[in-house]
C-alpha cells in the first residue's frame, strides 16, 4: 500500500491508487458559525443536510433527510439524476423556509473525481453500480449548479468533496489529531492529510498550510501480494458485465458492503453444486446478489444455540427450508471468513496510511520532517485519530472487532493504543457543510491544517 501511495503521488497513472488532489488545504476546527447545507450523493442513499454550528465545535442543530435513489436514475441520464438531486434540495429548503440565510452548499460526491479547484471537478468513472455514460468527464459541480438553476434555486456549490474528505472534515472539527478518514459502506475509500512537497506529480503546488488532503481512491488498490480466490474472480466477472469494471475496485470488492454478501453467496452456491449439504432446495443460490451484506451480518451475529436467525434468513431470503444445524453452522463459518478477510484488509490499509505518515511506530522513513509524526526510539507514539464512517462499519460489530484485532496484531499493543478510530455519524454530509463554511468566500475561518 505504501509503495503504491508513493507511486500514485509521483505521477498520474503511476499506480492503481489515483491519489487525487482535493484542493482542501484547510479543515474546520470548531470555530465555524452559521447555517450551512450539503448534499450527499454516494451510493445507496442520498441525503440533504442542514447544519447550524456555533463556536467551540458546537452543532446547534442538524437536520438530515435520507432518500433512496431510484434504481433507474443510476443508469439513466445526467440531467435526470441531477434534477432529482436539485429538486430534493428545493423541497427541503422550502420546508426550512430560512430565506435570508446565506447558503453555502457542500456537495459530497463519492465517486472518483479529478478536481480543478475545491468547488469543481470532473467525473473519472462511476463505481458502486452507477453507470451513466455521458457524465464521465463532466464537471459534476457544474451539473448540479445547472440543475439548481433549472429549478430556480439561487444556490451554488461552494465545496465539492469526496465522502472521505467530508468525514475527515467532521473528524477534524471535533479533534485536531484527526489525520485520515476511511469509509466502509457500500464501497470503501480513504483520504489523509499529505504534505504538499510529497505530492511530486504536482510540483510547485503551494498551499497556505503546506498540506493538502489526498483522496486515495483505495477501493481500486490492487497488489500481486493479495491472494485472489475463485469467488473474487467470479464476482469480478459478474460486475464487469454489469458495470464494465473489469479488474477495477479490486480492494473494494473484498471489503465493502456492496459485495461481501455476494462473495458468500458464490461460496455457498459452489458448495450446493458440489455437495448435498443444502438438499435439493438450493436453486435460489444461483441468483447473483440474493444474499445482501446485512443478511450476511445477521447470519454471523446469530448467537442463539440453535442458530434460529440463520434458519430464518435461509428460509425467507434464500428459500432454503429445513437446513440442518450442521449446515447452518457451515453457513455461519463461510460468512465469518468473508467478514474476517474484509476487516483485516481494511485494517492493513489503515496501517498503510499510518506508515506513510510515520505514525505506525516504526519511526523510519517519514521522520525527517518534524511535522510528520515519526518518533525516535523510546518516545511515546503520537496520538492519531482516524475518522470512520459507513453503514457496514457502523452496523456490523463483528467486523469492527476483527478490524481492531488486526490493528493490534500489526501495530503491537502500545502503538495501537495511540490510534483511535472514531465514528463520525453522517460525517460525509456534515463535514461537507463545514467545508462549505470554511471555503465560502466571506468566511474568516481559513485555519490551515
Ligand atoms: P453508502 O456507502 O452508500 O453511502 P452507507 O454508508 O449507509 O451507504 O452503507 C450502506 C451499506 O452498508 C449497505 O450497502 C450495506 O451493505 C451495509 N450495511 C448497512 N447496514 C448494515 C448492517 N447492519 N450489517 C452489515 N452491513 C450493513
Ligand atoms: Mg456514504
Automatic annotation (TrEMBL):
Domain Hexokinase N-terminal: 1-173
Biased composition (Low complexity): 365-378
E.C. designation(s): 2.7.1.-
One BP annotation, GO: response to glucose
One of the record's GO cellular component terms: cytosol
Catalytic activity: D-fructose + ATP = D-fructose 6-phosphate + ADP + H(+); a D-hexose + ATP = a D-hexose 6-phosphate + ADP + H(+); D-glucose + ATP = D-glucose 6-phosphate + ADP + H(+)
Keyword Transferase assigned: yes
Matches recorded under InterPro entries: Hexokinase (IPR001312), Hexokinase_BS (IPR019807), Hexokinase_C (IPR022673), Hexokinase_N (IPR022672)
Residues covered by the Hexokinase C-terminal domain: 180-438
Alphabetical keyword list: ATP-binding, Glycolysis, Kinase, Nucleotide-binding, Transferase
Keyword field contains ATP-binding: yes
Pathway the protein takes part in: Carbohydrate degradation; glycolysis; D-glyceraldehyde 3-phosphate and glycerone phosphate from D-glucose: step 1/4; Carbohydrate metabolism; hexose metabolism
Molecular-function annotations in GO: ATP binding; D-glucose binding; glucokinase activity
A Pfam family per the record: Hexokinase_2
Region (Disordered): 360-382
Family: Belongs to the hexokinase family.
Record's protein name: Phosphotransferase
Species annotation: Zizania palustris (Northern wild rice)
Amino acid at each position: 500500500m505504501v509503495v503504491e501511495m508513493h507511486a500514485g503521488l509521483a505521477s498520474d497513472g503511476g499506480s492503481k491508487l489515483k491519489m487525487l488532489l482535493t484542493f482542501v488545504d484547510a479543515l474546520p476546527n470548531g470555530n465555524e458559525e452559521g447555517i450551512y447545507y450539503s448534499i450527499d450523493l454516494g451510493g445507496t442513499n442520498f441525503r440533504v443536510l442542514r447544519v447550524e454550528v456555533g463556536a467551540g465545535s458546537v452543532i446547534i442543530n442538524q437536520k438530515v433527510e435520507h432518500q433512496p435513489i431510484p434504481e433507474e436514475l443510476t443508469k439513466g441520464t445526467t440531467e435526470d439524476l441531477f434534477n432529482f438531486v436539485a429538486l430534493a434540495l428545493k423541497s427541503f429548503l422550502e420546508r426550512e423556509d430560512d430565506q435570508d440565510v446565506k447558503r453555502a452548499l457542500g456537495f459530497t460526491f463519492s465517486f472518483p473525481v479529478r478536481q480543478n479547484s475545491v468547488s469543481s471537478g470532473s467525473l473519472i468513472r462511476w463505481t458502486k453500480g452507477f453507470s451513466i455514460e455521458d457524465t464521465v468527464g463532466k464537471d459534476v459541480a457544474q451539473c448540479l449548479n445547472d440543475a439548481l438553476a433549472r429549478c430556480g434555486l439561487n444556490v451554488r456549490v461552494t465545496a465539492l468533496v469526496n465522502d472521505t474528505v467530508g468525514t475527515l472534515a467532521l473528524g477534524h472539527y471535533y479533534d485536531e489529531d484527526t489525520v485520515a478518514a476511511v469509509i466502509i459502506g457500500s464501497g470503501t475509500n480513504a483520504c489523509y492529510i499529505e504534505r504538499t512537497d510529497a505530492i511530486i506529480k504536482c510540483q510547485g503546488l503551494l498551499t497556505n498550510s503546506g498540506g493538502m488532503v489526498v483522496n486515495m481512491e483505495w477501493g481500486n488498490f490492487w497488489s500481486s501480494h493479495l491472494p485472489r480466490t475463485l469467488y473474487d474472480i467470479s464476482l469480478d466477472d459478474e460486475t464487469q458485465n454489469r458495470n464494465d469494471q473489469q479488474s477495477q475496485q479490486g480492494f473494494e470488492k473484498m471489503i465493502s458492503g456492496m459485495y461481501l454478501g455476494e462473495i458468500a453467496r458464490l461460496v455457498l452456491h459452489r458448495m450446493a453444486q458440489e455437495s448435498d449439504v443444502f438438499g435439493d432446495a438450493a436453486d435460489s443460490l444461483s441468483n447473483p446478489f440474493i444474499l445482501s451484506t446485512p443478511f450476511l451480518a445477521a447470519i454471523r451475529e446469530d448467537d442463539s444455540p440453535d442458530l434460529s436467525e440463520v434458519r430464518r434468513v435461509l428460509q425467507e431470503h434464500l428459500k432454503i427450508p429445513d437446513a440442518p444445524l450442521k449446515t447452518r453452522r457451515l453457513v455461519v463459518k463461510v460468512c465469518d471468513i468473508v467478514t474476517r478477510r474484509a476487516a483485516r484488509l481494511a485494517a492493513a490499509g489503515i496501517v498503510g496510511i499510518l506508515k506513510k505518515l510515520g505514525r505506525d511506530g516504526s519511526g523510519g522513513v517519514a521522520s525527517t520532517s518534524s511535522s510528520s509524526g515519526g518518533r525516535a526510539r523510546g518516545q511515546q507514539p503520537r496520538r492519531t485519530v482516524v475518522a470512520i464512517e459507513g453503514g457496514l462499519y457502523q452496523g456490523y460489530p463483528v467486523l469492527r472487532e476483527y478490524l481492531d484485532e488486526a490493528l493490534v496484531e500489526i501495530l503491537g499493543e502500545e502503538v495501537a493504543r495511540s490510534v483511535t478510530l472514531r465514528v463520525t455519524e453522517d460525517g460525509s454530509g456534515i463535514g461537507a457543510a463545514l467545508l462549505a463554511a470554511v471555503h465560502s468566500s466571506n468566511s474568516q475561518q481559513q485555519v490551515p491544517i
